[in-house]
Automatic annotation (TrEMBL):
Name by which UniProt lists this protein: HTH tetR-type domain-containing protein
Species for this entry: Parasphingorhabdus litoris
InterPro entries: Homeodomain-like_sf, HTH-type_TetR-like_transc_reg, HTH_TetR
Disordered: annotated segments: 1-20
DNA-binding region: 42-61
Bias (Polar residues) ranges: 1-14
Coiled-coil annotated spans: none
Pfam families per UniProt: TetR_N
UniProt superkingdom: Bacteria
Domain HTH tetR-type: 19-79
Length: 211
């Protein structure tokens, strides 16, 4: 007997609520987009993988593009507000080095999808505008909070521009994950050596001599 997938907005064919259905669709979309690319992925395959009716993609996300943008937003929001899994360090150079290594490992877990994001957003002006319109550029709330704490403790100069400091760190992080690793194929140890040198330079530039 064929199952009836016609459900209201709060339930799907498996009796799950809308939030759980969206979560399954997002997880399935992550796998399919990462494997086949944006243009090669189909909503039918995503729906099959999620065990959901394909119509729910249109209902919940507005179609394939909306689903992709929801994934991009989710990844960026996680980078902006996700928990840092290493303890805070009292020295600026140590904190910066630990953060760069942490972000490098985390980006590696999503390397296929992140490669796709960079490619699509870099070449599609309309998609880039939609992806970035509601997101804060370059934010990482927990790491910025640590930088603020280091400034309050006197480890970072009181007149240091923390926004500039974070942008510098973000640029190095991005370059390591997507230029050195994906484009150049730089060995991880060589990248870590750059992190170490950069962290020392940051200490000299932004660290307080009184710390």
């Amino acid at each position: 007997m064929t199952k009836n997938f016609a459900q209201n907005d709060s339930t799907d064919s498996l009796g799950r609520n809308r939030e759980n259905t969206e979560d399954r669709l997002l997880k399935a979309a992550m796998k399919v987009f990462s494997k086949r690319g944006y243009h090669g992925a189909s909503v039918a395959e995503i729906a099959r993988s999620a065990r959901a009716n394909v119509s729910l993609i249109n209902r919940y996300f507005g179609g394939k593009e909306g689903l992709f943008l929801a994934l991009v937003e989710g990844v960026i929001v996680e980078k902006q507000s996700g928990k840092l899994t290493y303890p805070p360090y009292p020295a600026l150079a140590d904190e910066v080095l630990a953060y760069l290594k942490f972000r490098y490992r985390e980006d590696k877990k999503l390397r296929d999808f992140m490669r796709l994001c960079v490619g699509e957003i870099a070449t599609n002006d309309e998609l880039r505008g939609k992806a970035l319109s509601s997101l804060r550029y370059g934010q990482d709330d927990n790491f910025q909070e640590r930088l603020i704490d280091l400034q309050h403790s006197g480890t970072i100069k009181q007149d240091a521009d923390l926004e500039k400091l974070f942008r510098m760190i973000s640029l190095i992080s991005f370059s390591a994950s997507f230029v050195e690793r994906e484009l150049v194929g730089m060995p991880e140890r060589a990248t870590e050596s750059v992190f170490e040198t950069f962290s020392t330079m940051i200490e000299r530039e932004f660290g307080s001599s009184a710390a």
